[in-house]
Amino acid sequence: MELQLALDLVNIPEAIELVKEVEEHIDIVEIGTPVVINEGLHAVKAVKEAFPNLKVLADLKIMDAAGYEVMKAAEAGADIVTILGTAEDMSIKGAVEEAKKQGKKILVDMIAVKDLAGRAKEVDAMGVDYICVHTGYDLQAVGKNSFEDLQTIKSVVKNAKTAIAGGIKLDTLPEVIKVQPDLVIVGGGITGQADKKAAAAKMQQMINQG
Ligand SMILES: O=C(CO)[C@H](O)[C@H](O)COP(=O)(O)O
């Protein structure tokens, strides 16, 4: 199981300072969608250059023009690029093809997918690397989470790694670990803590104990 730190509410210098604090406790650093909107792919490039030993995920949440957008993220140094599960099959296949060409990975974000089991089976057959259940901020605000959804995809996905994102905190991490995803994505559960290093260290320890 790997731990990914999601950075959503920072600029490039703040991102670098934050990762410095926790780098030894995380496997992947995510340049979140709001950061890409504010800073562009320069944020991916800057973080990858500052932390070449960490994998960097560009959370582009691609919906169209997938091959081109994966190519640009790869050029900026992204190791993993996200596309939405609601995108056309042709877009997802295009993303996978380009990622393979560039030696990169594709994570499919299943946010807002209605038939989760059915779509997870379909995208799994397209050769994607990760399938991620995700409760976004707007649904977190009304008390939703993705713990049951994780069990759903675990039961149908045969090839891809499974991942979960959305509001995971220290107190809910044990529930996530029980379902054994391959990747746990945490934003505010680390970045919102006064002692970010301690929060990341504790999460890493819990994940390693599995
Ligand atoms: O992709 C995202 C929002 O769309 C976030 O990066 C993801 O939800 C993780 O952050 P948090 O743990 O704060 O929910």
From TrEMBL:
Keyword Cell division annotated: no
Reaction catalysed by this enzyme: D-ribulose 5-phosphate + formaldehyde = D-arabino-hex-3-ulose 6-phosphate
Domain Orotidine 5'-phosphate decarboxylase: 2-203
Pathway assignment: One-carbon metabolism; formaldehyde assimilation via RuMP pathway; D-fructose 6-phosphate from D-ribulose 5-phosphate and formaldehyde: step 1/2
The protein's Enzyme Commission number: 4.1.2.43
InterPro entries: 3-hexulose-6-phosphate_synth, Aldolase_TIM, HPS/KGPDC, OMPdeCOase_dom, RibuloseP-bd_barrel
Keyword set, alphabetical order: Carbohydrate metabolism, Lyase, One-carbon metabolism
GO molecular function, one term: hexulose-6-phosphate synthase activity
Broad class of enzyme this protein falls into: lyase
Origin: domain of life: Bacteria
UniProt family annotation: Belongs to the HPS/KGPDC family. HPS subfamily.
Name this polypeptide is given: 3-hexulose-6-phosphate synthase
Native source species: Robertmurraya beringensis
Protein encoded by which gene: hxlA
